[in-house]
Give the backbone structure.
Amino acid sequence: MTRQLSWGLRGKGPADIQLPAVEIDRVTPDWAWGGSRGAGIRVCVIDSGIEGDHPLVGPITASYEVFNSTDGPQVRPTDHVDTCGHGTACAGLIRAFAPDCELYSVRVLGERFSGTGSFMLAGLRWAVEQGYDVINMSLSTTRTQFAHELHELADEAYFRRTAIVASAHNTPVVSFPWRFCSVLSVGSHQEQDPNLYLYNPSPPVEFFAQGQDVRVAWPGGGTTRTTGNSFATPRIAGLCALTLAKNTHS
């Protein structure tokens, strides 16, 4: 029987993916990140940019963009600008969880969510080289020609101790880089609790977080409501920042 692809927790609840109880009582949320605010952790959002001065985002340490040069896609500094709102939404969710982290932006998407696999690849390569602690990628590509190099970059990030947190595709198709073992893959659940995080014992999607009808930061200093795995992913990225801050900078 062919197993149907499913990158979301649609029609299921927490009880459907519970793990057997084991004696690891000390591994609790409080133990892992309790009291942490993400201080000292550098989080890079590879997306559409982040709007500067948004009240739900706070300070942005630096912004960069991928552009076409005579030598192919390159990265350069740019203003704190978001081309379509997606990056600002993700950044606001990260900030809500890790208020003291340092936020960086690498813009690889243009207006109306336009983008290419080569831009995403160039942005990720540059971010890995910078040694960020956490990289949030609420985007992916279905183009298999980029899979091998994305896989190599994901593995390199892992061995550099950079956590890549990537969203699963919103439709049941295979895309990258979230499918790789060296990447933390995230889908959305439909529960209303924003602090409910679920581990999936049947990957490829490893974690689920709230991503249905979510209030997010939006360009112009306001908010909007939206749905998708993209908005579950920064919640897990924020938790990674909290955990790293508590256990590597304390």
User: Anything to note?
Assistant: Confidence is low (pLDDT under 50) at residues 1-5. The longest strand covers residues 62-69. The longest helix spans residues 233-248.
